[in-house]
Amino acid sequence: METLRIKTDGLTQQVLAAGPVDGPLVVLVHGFPELGISWRSQVKALGEAGYRALAPDMRGYGGTDRPDRREDYTILHLVGDMVDLVRSQGRDQAVVVGHDWGAPVAWHCALMRPDLFRAVAALSVPFQPRIPKGPPTLLMKALSKRLGLGEFYINQFQSADAHLEFEADVAGALRRGFYAYDGATPDDRRSTGFQPEGTTFLSAVPEDATLPPWMGEDHFAEYVAAFTASGLKGALDWYRCIDLNWTLTAAFQDRRIEVPAAFLVGDRDPVRVYAGQHEAGLKDRAPDLRNQVVLAGAGHWVQQERPDEVNAFLLGFLSRL
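RESULT FIELD:
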């Protein structure tokens, strides 16, 4: 594996890469609060299997550029960055894989540019269609009220200074975040995504939160160093563009994912509390869905918690394209 700096039309991207330069291209899109290194096991496995694997630090993260304006983090920018990355390699096709926030990016790559992204695989977050009644933050508030679990964290993240709590103690914030969504964390200590009154995404996590079993100190130090240097404003600006995304994607209302697709989620992933309802209808929205897996015992950080199973899932999907 190697770390590259690739200049695209919109920005300079830091990319973890492996595999023959002429191998079939696979782009891996991380989520929050992660980096391209969250795909290290997959980049290695794909490279060894003959694929050209690229895992960028996404816009606003790590070694990739961080625009200042909130409105520069829309889904159109994020998909555009992946289009530019593919083009920078002299390619006209790629498979896109996404996890967490990277899953909606991957789904929208396939939705908006099926000519370029010939297949899509997503982890943790199923495709969620645009709901005409939006905007999303209002629907999320209604969901919070209906479930009675407290305020939804994405609504809390809309605050212009929400990132400051993370930046005040980067190591502590990351430790709590990884712990709260990990499959090994006891049920009564894992997050639901909804915060009791008077708490935040971070303060609701127990103070004695530890690193997940799969997260070594050296690996954790990489995250801490990257987010200490970059801050988390850009990362949270992704969330602050959710309503703007809803406005910008009106032209894609009711459009389906037509390329081959695959989806995997851990059965202990807290995202299922608020997005799991979309798993049942995934085949209707992605008619060429070829594999849908619920991985027993796995939490949210599935490609790092259970790398061997995720590698087998991806390689199996790719081999049948």
